[in-house]
Design a protein that fits this description.
single chain, 8 helices, 24% helix
Length: 314
């Protein structure tokens, strides 16, 4: 067990990072500095807003630094002058150069939201759902100059079910990472790092709005995973009669026999859309400028016709 508290810098930005910083603040360890991305415009009013991590640090009287980059010699010297035992990184969003990685006594530990080497990169939570994985988890890892390529220090798994969304998995993994962190630090002198098998690595590309439109030439299962993975962002939608319909919740049903992809199947309280395999039944949707509604309310108000066909991607 660790004999004395560690001098730690925490490096993170979004909500995902908050439970880990809270755990450190409540621990015997000394959080001497917090690094976060600079305040940015957000919301409809584009008001410049501090990150959740910066707000938490300031509320606890911890010094906060928000450089746009860590590559300059001045930033690297400043980081080195903190005389750290360790830096803990969780969804920080900036690249750490070699000089920064090597400055603390124990280097930099990262809380990564996948079971490495699967899903290295920016969007491991959503890509695990999209990929049809049955489980994911947290890997605590020693950072090196590669993209999530460092030695693994600890792993724990979480199941992915047919009800799991990007939002629910984000919250679960955020809590799990915080739970795993303090026991790891308590045994920091007895760790047994495990090298990653690079041949099993997959890449979790950053999400884009361009991925949000549903493509009914894919299978219904694939699209159901997309809807769940892209909740809450970037969302999923399709176009019908010049209307953009955001899809919030779905389930997979058997397709209408012989119908082509994009065909609507309408009953009194159900609307499904034929896909390459199976059909996607819509449970909850939202029209632009409207509140979310159950599909029965949509059918009652807009009267889509059985057999109508949505134009699909070629």
């Amino acid at each position: 067990m660790l004999k004395k508290p560690l001098r730690i810098a925490f490096m993170g930005t979004p909500d995902f990072s908050v439970p880990a910083l809270q755990a450190l603040i409540g621990s015997p360890h000394e959080v001497v500095a917090v690094y976060s991305q600079p305040p940015r415009p957000s919301g409809r009013g584009h008001k410049v807003t501090k990150s959740p991590i910066q707000l938490l640090a300031e509320a606890n009287d911890i010094s906060v630094f928000t450089p746009k980059s860590l590559r300059s010699s001045q930033e690297q010297q400043h980081f080195s002058n903190l005389n750290l035992d360790l830096a803990v990184v969780a969804a920080y969003g900036l690249i750490l150069p070699k000089e920064t990685l090597e400055a603390p006594r124990y280097g930099c530990f990262n809380i990564h939201a996948s079971l490495l080497p699967r899903w290295r990169g920016a969007a491991p939570i959503q890509r695990a759902i999209l990929g049809g994985d049955s489980e994911t988890g947290i890997t605590l890892m020693q950072m090196d100059i590669g993209l999530d390529t460092g030695n693994m220090l600890a792993k724990e798994t979480l199941a992915i079910t047919d009800q799991t969304t990007g939002e629910s998995l984000h919250e679960a993994l955020s809590s799990l990472g915080a739970k795993m962190l303090l026991p790891l630090l308590d045994s920091i002198d007895q760790l047994s790092p495990e090298t990653q098998n690079d041949t099993k690595a997959t890449y979790a590309a950053k999400l884009t709005k361009a991925e949000a439109e549903l493509d009914f030439t894919k299978t219904a299962q694939d699209l159901d995973r997309q809807v769940r993975a892209f909740t809450p962002w970037p969302g999923s939608f399709f176009k019908w009669q010049d209307k953009v319909i955001k899809v919030l919740k779905t389930h997979v049903v058997e397709e209408t026999q012989g119908a082509k992809a994009g065909t609507l199947h309408v009953t009194k309280n159900q609307l499904s859309i034929v896909c390459k395999e199976g059909a996607l039944s819509l449970d909850c949707i939202q029209l632009q400028g409207k509140k979310p509604m159950e599909v029965a309310a949509f059918l009652n108000g807009y009267k889509p016709q059985n057999g109508d066909v949505i134009e699909v991607k070629v």
